[in-house]
User: Fold these one by one.
Assistant:
Number 1:
Amino acid sequence: MQKLLIFTDIHFVKEGRDIIGLDPVARFSQGLAHALATHPEASHVIITGDLAHYGSSKEYARLRTALAGCPIPVAMTIGNHDIRAKFRTAFPEIPVDENGFVQTVIDAHGHRLILLDTADEEAEIKHSGLLCEARLNWLEARLAEAPDTPTILFMHHPPITTGFEAMDRIGLTNRTEVAQRLRAYPQVKQIIAGHVHRTMSGAAGGIPVALFKSPCHQMPMALDGDDEHLSVDEPGAYGLILLHDDQIIVHTEDFTLHPASPASDM
């Protein structure tokens, strides 16, 4: 069994700023420390976008500092709050595809991990996402290279409707097309996403989809709400993926809760 640590929607801000009274940098650092201490044998940290709240150079600089001591490899892609050019300047070592999208492949533990860039900086609907033809063609080429290798896709915008009307409005605008095209690739066993700041699951074209919460602020259970910016101070979380030879197991860990203790039968 191998382990992957997954973070999403970390929303770094400049020093002295917060989000609903929470410090995203402190919360991420707490979550990363918890994950590494609890699962020191994990092979990778994967962060699925919304790295910086405003996409500024100072925010990315703070993220680089926060990751500097991480003892295992870190892979990242971007989300709707990020600015691609500034991210690439801040993290020139992070791979991109031939078109400059923050997309890469990691072959590990008999699995293929593919990170996708769903950021749409020219979107008519602000904060919505897109996997354009160039990005889908790149994905299909990577899938064609390893048709017999179990594959996990990582992206920011989920390729499903979530029931949150406001978030679905700013979701992946071509999610139906993406799900249809993925049907041709049975080696895709799992999709991991974020964006909604809730833990949930679903399926896209028959492929299981798991969404994780943010380490910082969460979306309240307001399915018919009209404001995608609603946030609540609920426990911060990260995801844990267990890779077995014959299955993929997905967990989530609320790391800001009190430590576990034995239940009393008295």
Number 2:
Amino acid sequence: MKILVLNSGSSSQKSALFELEQESAGDPVPPLWEGKLDWRDQKEQQHIRNSSNKEIRTEKPAGDRQTSVEAMLRNLWSGPTAVLSRPNDVAIVGHRIVHGGANLTQPAVITPEVKQAIQDVSAIAPLHNQAGLQGIELIEKLLPNVRQVAVFDTGFHRTLPIEAHVYAGPYEWYERGIRRYGFHGINHEYCAHRAAKMVGRDIAALKIITCHLGNGCSLAAVDSGRSVNTTMGFTPLEGLAMGTRAGSVDPGILIHLMRADSQGYKQLDETLNHESGLLGISGVSSDMREVLRAMRAANKRAQLAFDVFVHRLQTEIGAMAASLGGLDVLVFTAGIGENSPEVRAAACRKLGFLGVRLDDAKNSSVKRDDEISSSVSRVRVQMVRAQEDWAIARECTRM
């Protein structure tokens, strides 16, 4: 069964084609074809690659998103990277939808009603949900007879207990749907199950913290396979410091800026989402690799950005462990979590009281899913590669 996955972000579009058996299980398999578009600094970068290692790389001025995604997908069945003889070879299409709200908590076949429900909560995550809806509409145009499935990043966190998802504002907020939803759930769920398999234990007997650290960052506390706490909330802005997002700040700061500087909600939204985090503190970049390079060159603001990032990470790992009442496995995943031994080492440095001990040699050399804790560590520490696209494809086989 050939399954096409569209992973639509606010400034990127990832797509991958998998060939899986129905009710597919086991370890992730590499895609037959994958493509990525990035829009940054008024430029559009495209990278397409198939399983035969044929590639296309282009860079040009940013244009219409829908037109560019359509052109990229046509490379599935035409051009040097083609792996299909015709469009209808695709059996089903899966979409990552960031926000499903209170009602869309399980993967769903896309119908007009489901599309409307996605639209209804798009005000909470407008850039991501609108991009997802555009992807759905594009597939309706390119592959009009192919079934589509939505898989929701908020879905894994449907098991949050009420005390974890209700904010301490007026109860009217909760009645209006203002509550903690959590995000990155597709990868948090995959990593928790993957880590349980790696340590050779039943996930039902484990307390796991998964650290999804990329441009967006969040933690999940997973008890017996169920999400019981997470750092992101009503929107993906809450929680950890991130690439350009501030994470949790004193809401009184926003009131102060509105009163003292007459800042409106649009300016505050831009500041909190796009001008904060690693970029805002360092003044260098939102990319941890660039921040680390600047640190090594004795850039004090880059050092401060790193220290703030790690402090918030350590603090929230402690909070997740408290909500679990213990810790068996700690998982690092996503761009920073997978590729920065410096962040992993710094994050674990103050976690000895939980029983966390890293093996420095393993931590500095790990390249694939593997354990990086020492033999004396009471907590098993794992690096797990994010596999969102494969996880979505697997959900499609279940549908």
Number 3:
Amino acid sequence: MTAFRKSLRNAAILISVSIFAIPTSNAVPQSIYGKEKPAPARQVRFEIPQGWTIHRGQSGLVVFHPQGWKVQEQGGGAFVAFRPGAGGGATAIVYVQPMEKIEGKSSGVVQGLDRIAPQLFPEVKVMGLRMASTKPEVAVGEISFSPRGQAFQGIAMCFKQDLKGALYAIASTRSTYPQDEPVMKQILSRFFYSGGSGQEGSASAPTMVPWRDPLEGAFSCPVPQGWKVDGGMKRFSALDTRPEVLTISPDSQVLVRIGDSFIPPMTLPTQLGMSMGFHEGRWYGADGVNKQLIMRYLPSTSFLT
């Protein structure tokens, strides 16, 4: 299972979708194009995007979605999130189907979408099928279908490594697809499995143990048991101290960082300073005791690059 989740995370890098998969089941979805109404999604209080809510279900499944959307679980980690239309039928859908065993190519899975989920993608047509990657196998194709005479379009993708993988699909009515596509991709990028059983307070979490700054004993913080921990209070001068904690999971797949000792103290550029030659990018304070980098505030992505 651990290897399976690692391989799925590699696929997330390729398609900019964050995914965690667990074994599939043979359960099939109920129709979302008819008048049937699924059970209302259960909500809990989490920090979520404005205008969104959360579905927390079986096996710890957590799906963030815009208010008004519904989520149906299909067992074994599979689910469909959809936006009901005025008549009760779906007008946009996000489908996730983990697969414990894939026989054949990932492209064949995409082409067989209507056989895997016929209630969701009746008589679907797959066009422009292409391989986004060969190691692991990632097949992507455009899809179109017309449940109850209403035209839908979208994208389907299958990721496969060894015999395991997952199938993903997004689709909405042709007239609304341009504005629906980024929303559906956000749903894919946010869902995860917490490891709980779907009940309040049942989510599993690693055992936390205290870790104390080994350099100066200046602070302590809880860290996951068994993880590698480094850092402490880095002192560059009497007045320049930079706390830093780096924790790495035992499989070296996850890094959690608090603080960054490579980032020095900074000061904003001023007209007076620039008239004296202290331009942005230069250092202020040559004594090495109170040395500061002159730099304006930047968006985080600009600063990182």
Number 4:
Amino acid sequence: MSSDLIYLISVSVAAIAGLVTAWVATVPLLRFKELRPLTPRDIAAEATSGYQVEIRAVERHARCGKCRTDCHRRDVVPLVSWRRGCRGCGTPMPIWVVLLHLGVPIGAALTVVSYRNSWVAVPLLWLLVVLSAAAFVDARIWLIPKRFVWVGASVGFVLISVVSLGIGRGDRIIWAVGGGLGAFALFCLMWFASPGKLGFGDVRLSALLGMYLGWIDIRLIFFGVLIGSLIGIVIGIWSLARGSGSRFAFGPALAAGTMLALWLHAALLAA
């Protein structure tokens, strides 16, 4: 079997696995709601007081926002559910569901393409799933569950360590740890300097992002934050244009900036 055929199969398998993963994860992610669903959020007050609203997942909360029909896995089948909408009232699927179903398989394929014939892609595929889940929830309720960050970082560090030792680059583990700590310290400073502009969930997420970016190359942390900030500016302008105010979830922008920096790492570092 030729190397090109193996490469094509790898990309196809990654895309199919990504689509299945996105489908299976949709309903569990839709369960996340604010612990205080009837209390108006005051993001600025939460940031200045240090109080963070908790999140819990309750199965009965995965419902249609219009008719309150319970949402099951069969109701969110990719492609089919986009056309059919809610089983109870026909309301179209939320745009975030469609983006999740498209983003994960496309991202998985891009990861394999960017790191062709390399085990480095394995930890990055895990990061893609974690960031997709975090961005999905943050976009919906402006909160990133702590477990996403801690589980994502713990499993990610194990994968990074195994792959680094396997390819004979154990020194990259130190860079990963340094990148995570450095990014976390930077975002902590930003959080203290601009109360209400940055949620502490984003600060926690930065440690995960910095660990992965630092693992590939410490310079990618700069590019990841820069690209994420530019995406955030675009989202902010779009939010203002829609009359939704200047506040928006920054997690999706950070996640997108990180993955773009990882996919484009060769071009960015060469430049």
